[in-house]
Design goal:
alpha/beta, Hypothetical protein af1432, Rossmann fold, seven-stranded mixed beta sheet, 27 strands, globular
């Protein structure tokens, strides 16, 4: 009969295997050193949650991470290769086991992670661990493939009585079947399985040194067994350790004739080398905080000075910072100041979540420049974190830099990006990252591996920019993310120019509840504001703004479409339309206009952004000569994604907070010479219907049937509030009036506006308000279903990855934003740049992906999908693309093309167009 070293965990080329015991030891060794790579504050949360001293924590966590694949030491996994099942049965059971295996073949093979959750508790309890704690720990590490086993999954195999009267399930007693006992290696007639498992775990325990260490959580109650922060961090570090230890290049397969002693002797060296190879580079923050002027090479403004002074009191502790300030006040640098002070106080690392990929791309370049300045003698892993990150040239170049191998004495300083972290589930684990807020929001959704994203945020400073840009659904997700950052002990900096009082209060409540505290009522303070909350302490202060933002009078003029040409030619001018179709229609009237919207390829978008920066970007000196007259026709993409400045601004009406963002692009920079004498916002007034009500056209929701409510661009009631608020105004005083404008637009209990409306207007107001209330209530309810529980409702770790089930009992897909159905395609314009007949890789793959465009027209999407089903050449997927993960869900659209009633064209000036013929 074989011994436990013959049980295999992995197979390689030519039948070479890697024993279970070796893989468990590999994983434990990686985990032991990976703990040193995490932010100290995150390790402290884990230590506090497991109630262990530092030495015991290292021993127990490495042991638990190593034990993740205990479930592979069981018959179903060992007999996995059906062709060799009989041979393996004869090796491991002298032929006796084969009869049982024939019976087991009738069963659906249980996932080995679930088997770990079923079998590991027995060994843990023999070590003295409380049975509830043992069950929870085993379930957490058993979830290393992304889904933590639920009580139902475990009970299906072991029966509820196996966990004891006070056990993990607290359900009715039910004994396991003999077949299930055999499936997890607990068949009493074949005791060798239990013995092998015990020997493997005993070897692992000796290697990790748990003997003589204190036991985790010796005072478990019937409530929460393991604190949520500890559960998340343990699940995440287990999965990371497993992934790194599964690299055959770092841990070559041991094969047969294993010398276990010799294997163990070299493990620490292998683990350290693996961590270095994957990019878990050690970096050392400054030992003392640097002054703002040293970090950014310019003198701080009012906001930055205030935050720097507050960090002397709040650094190194969980805290929420809400910054409300006009554009151009240096909110980003202020937030990075918070990150810097926390980095020197056991909270190294930062993630910056932006509202769009474009804003993330722009900030990535700035962040890399800052880091190269701050750490000239170190290589710092900085990731761009969003689904199209590989398409960004700056990011691709930093990946190439880190892929080179340097000696210790010859490693370059500055920002770099490890290839290993580019994977979407690993990117947040890098010490520094910037991307979309969505990447962080996935961490609070009921999805597989969500704990990895939360691990990536634990103990770091999390910065969320432009939070006003989200709808009710995503805003609730932001609240829950802020809540879980508090649970994880992560400071959060929220940046916005336009937050309502209710939003600010909700953010503070979310963070306070995450700390297990009651939120205080916010004291009143004038705009601009800095709100800081930490451990029952709240401070709200105002600060001075830059001269360019001090009491700006923005004149308002209402115009018709026909008036637009007369307003051009007086300096750099922007026309902001609220839909792509309207933007393209306007641009066709002005041949010299630069056009910018969301339906360009990445290649063209970057070219347009670069041209925008050249024409409308920040001047080097304020006395530069007047800029020549030019025109940009754009959609709301320029509200957040570009630091641009116009002398003249023409805009469609939009919700008031977004209109303030648009105004932030009018006379934004300090310039001595302008093409006009004063800043004027020209608003295109809506037409009126037969009842005298404003007609917002395609910019509002459509209600195709009774009781249905489908939003388009903006909510009708939000537009009505802007319209009635501004239609008789001649000017706005900013930032003085920002608070009153935001409250008038979003305090839905305020009915003051109704006093000046006629009967038709009142009815329209009330109907649109009711429709919006119903819609937003539905969004809030939907968000509650999608997110993981808050602290007060958390019970066991399995709820973190348990999907929400729909009415049919199937898992509901969780998402970060409510968006219309869309279809991404690769455009083929006949230029010969698209590869068809071979598997695209490297630069060829990147060039293909840069031809991607997203289509959101529902009618066109329907026709395109019908065309693809027909197997036509207009829209098809080359067979070679199915082998490439990035192209697997993309089809090639050859343009120009007639698809159903739509004639589709693309050009580099107007972008993708679909006209009905």
């Amino acid at each position: 009969m074989e011994d436990f070293t013959s049980l295999w965990a992995k197979t390689g080329d030519k039948g070479l295997t890697h024993p279970v015991v070796c893989h468990l030891l590999d994983t434990a060794a990686v985990c032991r050193h990976l703990l040193d790579c995490l932010p100290p504050a995150a390790v402290q949360r884990l230590q506090r949650g497991l109630r262990l001293d530092a030495t015991s924590l290292r021993a127990w966590v490495s042991f638990l991470a190593g034990a993740h694949d205990t479930g592979k030491a069981a018959p179903p996994f060992q007999f996995k290769p059906k062709t060799s099942a009989l041979e393996r049965a004869q090796q491991l059971g002298g032929g006796v086991l084969y009869a049982n295996w024939r019976d087991l073949e009738l069963l659906e093979e249980p996932p080995h992670g679930v088997v770990t959750a079923c079998t590991l508790p027995e060994f843990l309890q023999k070590c003295g661990v409380d049975e509830q704690v043992a069950g929870e720990l085993a379930a957490i590490v058993g979830g290393h493939h992304g889904s933590i086993p639920s009580p139902e999954e475990i009970e299906k195999l072991v029966g509820s009585q196996a966990q004891g009267s006070r056990g993990f399930f607290n359900r009715r007693n039910r004994a396991p079947s003999k077949r299930n006992q055999a499936a997890i290696g607990n068949d009493p007639t074949l005791p060798q399985w239990r013995a092998w498992r015990t020997d493997i775990l005993a070897t692992l325990a000796t290697f990790c040194g748990i003997a003589g260490c204190s036991l985790p959580i010796t005072d478990a109650s019937s409530g929460v067994v393991i604190e949520p922060a500890a559960a998340v961090i343990l699940a995440g570090i287990t999965t990371m350790s497993d992934w790194i230890a599964s690299d055959a290049e770092s841990f070559p397969y041991a094969g047969e004739n294993l010398d276990l002693g010799a294997y163990i002797a070299d493990l620490d060296h292998k683990a350290l080398a693996a961590l270095k190879r994957t990019g878990w580079l050690p970096w050392q923050p400054h030992t003392e905080p640097q002054e703002f002027s040293q970090l950014f090479k310019f003198e701080p403004r009012g906001l930055q000075t205030l935050l720097e002074s507050r960090m002397r009191d709040f650094r190194g502790q969980p805290a929420l910072y809400v910054v409300e300030a006009p554009t151009g006040e240096g909110k980003t640098e202020a937030a990075l100041t918070v990150a810097h002070w926390n980095s020197v106080s056991d909270m190294p690392g930062t993630y910056i979540g932006m509202p769009t990929q474009a804003t993330g791309n722009a900030l990535y370049k700035r962040l890399c420049d800052y880091i190269e300045c701050w750490y000239p003698d170190q290589r710092i892993n900085v990731q761009l974190v969003h689904s199209a990150a590989r398409l960004d040239k700056s990011f691709s170049e930093t990946i190439c830099r880190l892929d080179q191998v340097y000696d210790e004495e010859d490693k370059p300083g500055g920002a770099a990006a490890s290839e290993w972290f580019v994977h979407r589930k690993r990117a947040l684990l890098a010490p520094w990252g910037v991307g979309t807020a969505d990447q962080a929001l996935v961490g609070i959704l009921r999805k597989r591996h969500q704990f990895l994203r939360l691990l990536g945020l634990a103990g770091k400073t999390v910065i969320l920019d432009e939070v006003h840009a989200y709808d009710s659904y995503t805003s609730r997700l932001v609240d829950r993310l802020v809540h879980w950052c508090a649970i994880l002990g992560s400071p959060v900096v929220v940046l916005s120019a336009t937050l309502s009082q209710e939003q600010r209060q909700r953010l503070v409540e979310s963070y306070a509840c995450g700390l297990g505290q009651s939120a205080p009522k916010l004291p009143e303070q004038t705009y601009p504001r800095l709100t800081v909350y930490s451990q029952d302490r709240i401070e709200v202060e105002t600060f001075d703004v830059a001269e360019v933002n001090r009491k700006r009078r923005i004149h308002i003029r209402w115009i018709d479409e026909a008036d637009i040409p007369a307003l051009l030619g007086r300096g750099p001018t922007a026309i902001i339309r609220s839909s792509v179709r309207r933007c393209q229609t306007t641009a066709q009237q002005f041949a010299d206009a630069l056009v910018f919207h969301s339906r360009f390829t990445q290649e063209d978008r970057e070219r347009i952004e670069q041209e925008c920066h050249l024409r409308y970007g920040k001047p080097k000196r304020n006395d530069e000569p007047p800029r020549p007259a030019s025109l940009l026709v754009a959609t709301q993409v320029i509200e957040q994604s570009l630091d641009v400045d116009f002398d003249v601004l023409i805009s469609d009406l939009c919700p008031i907070d977004l209109l303030i963002q648009r105004i932030g692009r009018l006379w934004r920079h300090d310039r001595k010479y302008r093409g006009v004498s004063e800043p004027v916002l020209y608003l295109i007034q809506p037409t009126q219907d037969e009842n005298g009500l404003p007609n917002f056209g395609e910019d509002i929701e459509s209600r195709p049937g009774k009781g249905s409510y489908q939003r388009r661009v903006y909510d009708r009631h939000a537009l009505l509030r802007s319209w009635y608020l501004l239609r008789h105004r001649n000017d706005l005083i900013l930032p003085t009036e920002i608070d009153s404008l935001i409250e008038a637009a979003y305090n839905f209990a305020d009915r003051t506006t109704l006093e000046g409306l006629n009967a038709n207007e009142r009815e329209d107001w009330e109907c649109s308000l009711t429709a919006m209330d119903n819609w937003q209530r539905g969004l809030r309810d939907l968000a509650k279903q999608m997110v993981i529980p808050e602290r007060d409702k958390y019970c066991r770790a399995w709820v973190l990855t348990a999907p929400q089930l729909n009415d049919g009992g199937k898992p509901e897909e969780a998402f970060t934003r409510l968006v219309e159905d869309s279809e991404a395609v690769i455009l083929n314009t006949g230029s010969g740049e698209i590869a068809f007949d071979h598997k695209p890789q490297g630069d060829v793959l990147r060039s293909i992906l840069r031809c991607q465009v997203k289509i959101s027209n529902p009618g066109l999407i329907h026709e395109l999908r019908a065309e693809q089903k027909k197997g036509g050449r207009t829209l098809h997927q080359p067979s070679s693309w199915r082998q490439v993960a990035y192209l697997r869900d993309l089809a090639l659209l050859t343009v120009p093309a007639q698809v159903g009633p739509y004639y589709i064209t693309y050009d580099c000036r107007l972008g993708l167009r679909a006209e009905r013929t």
